[in-house]
Amino acid sequence: GKIRSTCGKAFTVGVISYYSQQVSDIRALVDKDVTVETVDSFQGHERDIIIVSTVRTGRSVGFLDNPRRWNVSVTRAKVALIVVGRQQTLE
User: Fold this and answer.
1) How many Cα atoms are found within 13 Å in the side-chain-facing hemisphere of 10?
2) Which one is predicted more confidently, 85 or 75?
3) What is the per-residue pLDDT across 66-76, written as a single tens digit (0 to 9) for each?
């Protein structure tokens, strides 16, 4: 998907989730041009803007135990990275 800035530049957008069910739910809500994948599927790809969804219920976030997966998710953005999650869980 593309988002246009005020100066007219188009930016590609991707959404990364650690959970396949969440990927399916997000795909149903966004434009078909927005790339929505699990972190493992996004490896080797980049977008201008990346939104990482760490949202999950419960207290533990297992993906933080794997530095490689976290690294993949936060290094895919060329211009902007947005991490969405519960602050207390991520701390």
Assistant:
1) 5
2) 75
3) 788 888 889 99
Residue type, 58: G
CB atoms within 10 A of CB 4: 9
51-67 per-position pLDDT tens digit: 999 876 566 666 667 78
Per DSSP, the residues of 45-63 read --EEEEEEE---SSS--GG
75 three-state secondary structure: coil
* CB-count exposure of residue 14 (10 Å: 0-12, 13-18, 19+): buried
Tokens describing residue 24: 């399916």
